[in-house]
Structures
1.
Amino acid sequence: MKLYFVRHGIAEDMADSDFTRELTPRGRRRVAQSAQVMRRLGLRPQRIYSSPRLRSRQTAEVIAAALDRPATLADEVNFGFDLDDISSLTRGLGHDAEVMFVGHNPDMSRVVHQLTGVNVSMKKGGLARVDVYDGIAAQGELVWLIAPKVFDALAEYDAPVLAVSALPTPPQKLPETPHTLQRLIQNRWSPVGFDRERSIDSATLLSILEAGRWAASSSNLQPWRFIVAPKENQAEFQKLLSVIREGNQPWAQHAAVLMIAVAHKFRGPGVANRHAGYDLGQAIAQMALQALDHGVYVHQMGGFYPDKAREVYKIPDEFEPYTAVAMAYRTSDLDHLSDGHRQRETSQRERHSLADLVFSGAWARPADFLP
Ligand SMILES: Cc1cc2nc3c(=O)[nH]c(=O)nc-3n(C[C@H](O)[C@H](O)[C@H](O)COP(=O)(O)O)c2cc1C
């Protein structure tokens, strides 16, 4: 028998009682995304039993809708859920049955541990599959454990195991590369089709900025500075948008975070740092890859008004605003874009060949090690 254990999604901290704590909008969105992945993975539970607490119930309802299965409230899955409860809820089912339980910690982590001997820490929205072969009292096998972050990644990338996807995931723009590339480098590109609903949570944003902080720089001068405006603060977001050129605004306005990337131009008093822009570019490149690891896309823009940025943000003379940057999750819903931008979103990505770029011996002589 296949048993699925799900811990409810992220819920609000406070409510009239613990019983009525609801999923937060983010919690609901992540559960919906996870539920789509569960569907693509082919989960077919005959029964989905949920704790009656609202946050579990809502989690179970979203999953039940995605899997097209009924969800049933069961007091057994409430606080104190244990192996006896699993036995009573699965009694009489054949050994090829699939049953899902949606409830709370520490119970979910504990029953998985009791069944499998594996110490697991179920995250909110996480899912474990345990196969039991000979009655519930016997040892089960932990077949897999999917953390919410893994669900995010599975939803974002068309992993081969999910090739039967029925999800409207945005199409990828994988370049045709004759030589192997690391996955994030291969997947990075500059989209304009941004998910207008989805913001970037602060842990993700901080992780992206941290990646910039750890870039290499000449003499470790770290000349980069970032003016950052998440869309939650609409006044600041609009202020930053006003510095971006009109040609970029139609899509950049839907970003979750806008940013101006600035470099310090001097190594010391009166001594120019000719690597400042180079180092800033490295920092942004690292941020773009770190962002993509979270499913967030980075689109850089030379199309902004540096002088206006200097004026609006009172940027001192020794600093140079180099680029504007938009960050967002992607969407496959491109209705809000112009025809031109829609077309750009699906066009092939092009690059010069290595022979045009890599020389040896003399300028413009393609390196002899090239194929
Ligand atoms: C410094 C810089 C400035 C850019 N300026 C703009 C811009 O103003 N508007 C825009 O739509 N894209 C801009 N881009 C994105 C490039 O057009 C894009 O990176 C390039 O076409 C390669 O496509 P890819 O990033 O999807 O691989 C810029 C990129 C960089 C690095």
2.
Amino acid sequence: MQCKDAQKQLRAFSRGELPVDIRRTVNEHLSGCVACRLKLAAIDDVAGVLAAAKMPSIPVGVSARVLALARQRRNAEAAETWNLMR
Ligand SMILES: [Zn+2]
């Protein structure tokens, strides 16, 4: 495997998405190639930074309020439709 082929697989390799045989080939290439190992390290870093910079979690209770509001609205629409049909 050449560097350009290995580097095409690095993103999927980093996410563990490669089939076993391709993963093994990439692994063999990486064990003998510093340049591709550095690329992989950079990809892993980016993935780590993105994971750390995730959106703050939604405060407790917000999703429940949104759900309640959606339910109210749906019930109101249903009632309206029902009244039109009668
Ligand atoms: Zn390489």
